[in-house]
Description:
The chain is mainly alpha-helical and 203 residues long.
Amino acid sequence: MERKSIDQIKRRKPSGAAVIRPELTKALFRALFEEWAQCGYGAVSLERVAARAGAGKAAIYRRWPSKLEFVCEAIQRVGLTLSDFDDHGSLGADINAYLRTTRAAFRHPLARKIIPDVVAERMRTPEIAVTLNSLAAARRAFGSRMLDRAIARKELQPALDRELALDLLISPLYMRMIVHSKNTAMAEIDRQAIAIEAAIKAC
């Protein structure tokens, strides 16, 4: 019998455990949010999520041992990309960029349906509350760096009430778009940015 060459062995496709494909993982997250927006968290079906993503239910369980862990990772991944915390040269410009990116996220039809349900679910599901608290801490850390830049530019006093300042960054836009379900034009974003900057400087 002819012995197989080393090159043939190297070309052999891997067997055993299925390879985790990033594009399918992304499709599963998207399908989860679509299902969540349509049904609410309590009625989310992993079978339907998998079908939406063009996969079998096993594709979910290869990645996450439970629906809860699937949901928590999805929230964590998406939540950190909803706002712009980059340096735009001034506190006012930083706030304006932050609001514009957040506005775009809040305008997404899935986000507008899911975010209120996530907030409600945190009261019922401790694991989701832990995930949201971790996400909030990470986002506030990014926001705190924005404040540090403003302090370094001497736009803010070092002794400002940092927690209040961080609350002010998001509260007006969240109330307008999520709580009251109102559209927010760019002119309104500009007005909010001016008002928030003034309020933070008074903290």
